[in-house]
Write a structure and sequence with these properties.
heterodimer, A: alpha+beta, 11 helices, 9 strands, B: Rossmann fold, six-stranded mixed β-sheet, four-stranded antiparallel β-sheet, 6 helices, globular, cell membrane (chain A)
């Protein structure tokens, strides 16, 4: 038995299919409304999914970090050694990396100058990735310089860089993966280079993932701060922080716009179904006269609406998939990202919405046709 | 026992301020294997009476008995079930569904009964009304007489006790009308069905067993009994 034969065992489907075929132009136009609605919902949804995916991959490097600076109620101008020791005692499952910061001007032999921020840190490996090789876990001599700064100044690995009257040999170049940039270049030196500063400007805690980072942040906040007194300012970027919240708002707004077009489409379906049931009033009267039940007429007309929605939805989903591949290629550079659930889900939702909206639009015409008294309907 | 019986039936319509009695204390009955013709000028209440007999409408006063059961106060859904199982309709302008083939149109009343396969009976009925070579034609590919025969086959698909025909020859030429009437006469015996036909076509009286003449909602003459 073929699929068609199987479907023909459902009289509502058979009748609905034949009825839709009677006025093909009208069916196609109504389905077109649904197609446009589905494509707008799906492609807007997939665009936000692509943006979100791209943003999270870029935020990934700081998402698992806790950043601690001196709080507004602190007596000192930084984080003290004692506080760092306490943190190390409290936090056992993450790397605690205290840093001293400053800024300086680095110049090259040819006289070109670049202003960079200076970070004094021992465990450089926890914070930096180098273009080649590994950053040292104990940076005791030598320096690391951002790749872009090095390129600008013509400095290569092994060249000396001066800071505070001392020369440091560049041991490695820092790979700048962070799209959010934090401005210019960075010079990383041993902690001893900034020894005239008593306190740490920043303590970074590097955890395994953003959930752990958030947990650690909360734990430290509870230990060091009270409601009235902020000894330390503790920041986490977990859950992609504010950026994630913004993206969620954006995606909701875009989906709402897509939703409006689907509402318009379902009004069109309501209109088409209403017109076609009014036109076929006499015919439905015949059905009722020969003993077709009200529920069966209702089902037949609802099936018509559902078929129209499914037809439009299916075409809409196929077009959206094509659009999604293009969108993902443009935003993330990987078209297959559209097939991952984060993007693909919008195709499922789009199709579901199309069918549900169409059925909802069919309810009133179907109810009206089914409850028309056969003796009235027969008069046409 | 009569298969359908109207007793003292009154049907009134409200038309603005005015109340019109379309049927005024009408009695009627029909037996299996009998053809009864209701005849009268237009506006005499023929169609209203046929709607009562066909359980499409309910009387304002009086009772309707189907096969000895009082169905006067049945709900719309109960009436639908009775029509489905016991009554067949033939309409003046055929009322075939244009997107269905002849066979599918005949199957239509039992379409939602997936428990029974009426396909063979539909084809058999079409063969018996002489349309064995038109099984898969659509209504627009059939002549008026052929369409009416499809409609008759459709009315018989559920093996009804009563077949109602509203002006069955109204849209047909003289010769085709006679063929249809011969067909109906044969079927009432073969299928042991009561045929109730409404017409203003005097030609039908040659084929009928009894005639009810209706004027202004009142039965003026019953002949042939």
């Amino acid at each position: 038995m073929s699929v068609v034969d199987f479907l023909w065992r459902f009289p509502s489907v058979q009748m609905a299919w034949r009825n839709l075929g009677r006025n093909k132009l009208r069916t196609v136009l109504a389905a077109l409304g649904i197609i446009i609605g589905v494509v707008s919902i799906c492609s807007l949804g997939m665009a936000t999914a692509a943006i979100q995916q791209q943003a999270t991959s870029q935020l990934g490097s700081i998402g698992n970090e806790v950043s601690i600076t001196s709080g507004q109620d602190s007596d000192t101008d930084g984080v003290t050694d004692d506080q760092v020791d306490t943190m190390r005692n409290l936090v056992t499952d993450a790397e605690v990396v205290p840093q001293k910061t400053n800024s300086t001007t680095v110049s090259s032999r040819n006289g070109r100058e670049v202003r960079v921020s200076v970070t004094g840190v021992t465990n450089a490996a926890a914070l930096y990735n180098l273009t080649s090789g590994e950053a040292p876990t104990r940076l005791l001599s030598g320096a690391l310089l951002s790749n872009s700064t090095a390129t600008t100044l013509g400095i290569e690995e092994g060249d000396p860089v001066e800071y505070d009257g001392q020369l440091y040999r560049v041991q490695g170049l820092i790979e700048e993966e962070n799209a959010f940039g934090f401005g210019g270049g960075e010079l990383v030196l041993p902690e001893s280079a900034l020894s005239e500063q008593n306190h740490y400007n920043v303590v970074t805690i590097v955890a395994a993932d953003s959930a752990t980072a958030t947990e650690i942040g909360g734990e430290l906040d509870e230990y060091f701060n009270t409601e009235d007194e902020e000894e330390l300012s503790i920041n986490t970027f977990g859950n992609a922080g504010q950026v994630g919240g913004f993206l969620e708002t954006l995606s909701l707004a875009l989906l709402a716009i897509g939703g409006i077009s689907l509402v318009v489409a379902s009004v069109a379906i309501l209109n088409v179904m209403l017109m076609s049931t009014v036109e076929r009033r006499g015919e439905i009267g015949v059905l009722r006269a020969v003993g077709i039940r009200r529920s069966e007429v209702l089902r037949m007309i609802l099936t018509e609406a559902a078929l129209m929605g499914a037809l439009g939805g299916l075409i809409g989903v196929l077009l959206s998939l094509a659009a999604g591949l293009v969108i993902f290629q443009m935003i993330t550079g990987d078209p297959l990202g559209a097939l991952q659930w984060s993007g693909f889900q919008y195709l499922v939702y789009g199709f579901g919405f199309a069918v549900v909206a169409s059925i909802l639009s069919g309810i009133y015409p179907a109810w009206k046709a089914a409850n028309d008294r056969p003796v009235d309907a027969l008069r046409g | 026992m009569s298969v359908i019986e109207l007793t003292d039936v009154v049907k009134r319509y409200q038309n603005g301020e005015e109340v019109i009695a379309a049927l005024d204390h009408v009695d009627f009955q029909a037996d299996r294997g009998e053809m009864v013709t209701i005849i009268g000028p237009s506006g005499s209440g023929k169609s209203t009476m046929l709607n009562m007999i066909g359980l499409l409408d309910t009387p304002t006063e009086g009772t309707v008995h189907l096969d000895g059961r009082n169905v006067t106060d049945f709900t719309e859904d109960e009436l639908t079930e009775e029509r489905r199982s016991g009554i067949g309709f033939v309409f003046q302008d055929f009322h075939l569904l244009p997107m269905l083939t002849a066979t599918e149109n005949v199957e239509l009343p039992s379409m939602w009964d997936t428990s029974v396969d009426r396909h063979d009976r539909a084809q058999d009925l079409l063969q018996r009304v002489g349309l064995g070579d038109r099984l898969n034609h659509r209504p627009d590919q059939l002549s008026g007489g052929q369409r009416q025969r499809v409609a008759i086959a459709r009315a018989l698909i559920n093996e009804p006790d009563i077949l109602l025909a509203d002006e069955p020859t109204g849209n047909l030429d003289q010769d085709t009308g006679e063929t249809i009437l011969t067909e109906l006469t044969r079927l009432k015996e073969d299928e042991n069905v009561a045929i109730v036909a409404v017409t203003h076509d005097e030609q039908m009286l040659e084929y009928t067993d009894s005639t009810v003449r209706l004027v202004d909602g009142v039965v003026t003459e019953v002949s042939g009994r």
